Amino acid sequence: MECQGELYEQIRREYEFGVGSVIGVARKLGRASAHGAEAVRNAVPAQRKKTERPAVKMAAAAALVDAILESDRKAPRKQRHSGAADL
Asked: Which domain holds residue 23?
């Protein structure tokens, strides 16, 4: 799978030297025309927006986990929770 930057470059080349229209490029490459228009306007793809989601299921155990981590900070090195699975 190609990265977004390579796709934008391919769209811009096809727009400039190939088909010549945003809709034609979109049809040729099998993409939405909005992708083509965005690629022609901007050379670099826009950053994705990251949505903040509440940790609903983790909220109940958050206090317990914080207490365990705090006790691990105070415990001697050999008695801490290591996070490594015993195999």
From this structure: 4-41
24-60 pLDDT, tens per residue?
877 787 777 777 777 777 777 778 788 888 888 888 8
DSSP code at position 30:
T
HSE value, Cβ hemisphere, 13 Å, CA-based, for 48: 4
The model carries a pTM of 0.44
Measured distance CA(79)–CA(85) in Å, rounded: 15
Cβ-contact 18, 11 below 8 angstroms: no
Q: For residues 39 and 8, is the Cβ–Cβ distance under 8 A?
A: yes
Residue 24 belongs to a domain: yes
Residue at 79 is within a domain = no
Give me the number of domains the chain comprises.
1
CA 39 – CA 7 distance, rounded (Å): 8
